[in-house]
Design brief:
With 354 residues, the protein is an alpha/beta fold. The protein folds into 2 domains: 7-64; 79-299 and 315-344, Vaccinia Virus protein VP39 (Rossmann fold, 3-Layer(aba) Sandwich), CATH 3.40.50.150. The chain is built from 16 helices and 12 strands. It has helices at 7-16, 20-36, 42-46, 48-64, 79-89, 109-121, 136-144, 154-159, 184-190, 202-205, 220-224, 241-252, 268-277, 287-291, 295-299, 318-321; strands at residues 97-103, 126-133, 146-148, 170-171, 174-175, 191-194, 197-200, 208-212, 227-231, 255-262, 281-282, 325-327. The strands form 3 sheets. The protein has a 7-stranded mixed β-sheet with strand order 8-2-1-9-10-12-11, with helices on one face. Strands 3-7-6 form a 3-stranded antiparallel β-sheet. Strand 4 (170-171) and strand 5 form a beta hairpin. Helix 2 (20-36) packs across helix 4 (48-64) and helix 12 (241-252) packs across helix 13 (268-277). The longest helix has 17 residues, at 20-36. It is globular.
Length: 354
């Protein structure tokens, strides 16, 4: 039976991970697994044994494979996630100000998707968006909000720098469009279409501040200020676990007490550990839908380090392991200690209502 390594076996793997012979053998094993995994019947992957085998493969891929940052993205990438954000902010009083930070905003698709969803549902809210990325080139491109509709070949998508629309838009060896998850009606609502260009409409660009910043910088939270909602999606998975954990802890400092952190596209072990350590309360509403809401991440499991394992409520830790949204409690960030307040215990997940 294939099992995800426990702490003891992980320690043993760490001791031997630098052995050239061990690494060579594991790479051969993974090469064969990649060749044969698609031959396994689909029903096997839904069984406990099949999921254990998948976790076993992905653990090795994450340990011995390379991780690289990518600018691949989509508009309306995770619809359940956007709907949950709408529900959470629907509690706000009429005309309330809402501060939202989108960390690793990439080409802007996630930022504009959030603004479109929230302003369409609650035009009275005074959204103040801060969109941050480590690349000034990407920040400038996203702020311009002008995208090319016509496709390019795969080679240009990987290396082209003049037009970032198609850069890195390769998912599982397939060229994919940032717009492929939009309906024609949604395209018309979000963009001014002209020839081969799509321009974000002015009402979606209002009150967005575009910034260059490093989420791993200890001064990041101080410089940006605390937020009602922080979105930190699909970039931590590209970092090694230790770096991702430190970065996630740092990003958590951005959230106002009682505010919400959206964090998907991260190693589940990293997110679970940080959430437990800091007593983040998982939001139960739409948990399964949000976890499974990005088809590319689900389809990428287990043969890609960034893939997301299937939702499994048979696990004892499922309420925190598969949560992508957390409410941040009364945490003293100066001392790292958590105030004794049952309202913010991580083992008391919260539910929202429409």
């Amino acid at each position: 039976m294939f099992l995800t390594p426990d702490n003891g076996s992980r320690a043993m793997l760490e001791r031997h991970s630098k052995s050239r012979i061990v690494r060579f053998c594991i790479k051969l094993y993974l090469l064969q697994a990649r060749r044969t995994f698609h031959l396994i019947p689909a029903f096997f992957g839904r069984l406990a044994l099949g999921q254990a085998y998948g976790r076993h493969l992905q653990d090795l891929i994450r340990r011995y494979g390379e991780r690289n940052q990518s600018h691949a993205t989509f508009f309306l990438r995770n619809r359940p996630e956007l709907e949950l954000m709408r529900r959470l902010l629907n509690r706000k009083r009429h005309g309330a100000a809402v501060d939202i930070a989108v960390v690793a905003c990439s080409k802007g698709a996630e930022v504009y998707s959030i603004v479109w969803k929230l302003r369409s549902a609650r035009p009275d809210l005074r959204l103040r968006i801060r969109a941050v990325d480590i690349s000034q080139e990407v920040v400038d491109f996203a702020a311009a909000g002008v995208y090319t509709i016509d496709s390019v070949d795969s080679r240009k998508a990987l290396h082209q720098t003049g037009d970032l629309t198609w850069k890195d838009q390769i998912v599982r060896e397939r060229l994919v469009s940032m717009f492929e998850r939009l309906t024609s009606q949604e395209m018309n609502e979000m963009f001014e279409l002209e020839s081969d260009q799509a321009r974000i409409k002015p009402w979606l660009k209002e009150r967005i501040t575009w910034l260059r910043g490093d989420a791993a910088d200890p001064e990041f939270a101080t410089a940006l200020g605390v937020q009602d909602v922080v979105v930190a999606n699909r970039f931590l998975c590209h970092m090694e676990p230790a770096a991702a954990e430190a970065c996630l802890r740092n990003v958590g400092r951005l959230v106002k007490p009682g505010g919400y952190l959206f964090v998907s596209g991260v190693d589940l072990e990293v997110r679970t550990k940080v959430a437990r350590d800091l007593a983040w309360r998982p939001v139960m509403e739409m948990m399964r839908e949000v976890h499974q809401g990005d088809s590319s991440l689900i389809e990428g499991w287990p043969l890609n380090y960034w893939g997301v394992e299937p939702f499994c409520d048979d696990r004892s830790d499922w309420k925190i392991r598969y949560a992508s949204v957390f409410q941040i409690g009364e945490l003293s960030y100066n001392t790292g200690s958590i105030f004794t307040n049952a309202q913010y215990r991580a083992d008391q997940p919260i539910r929202t209502k429409e």
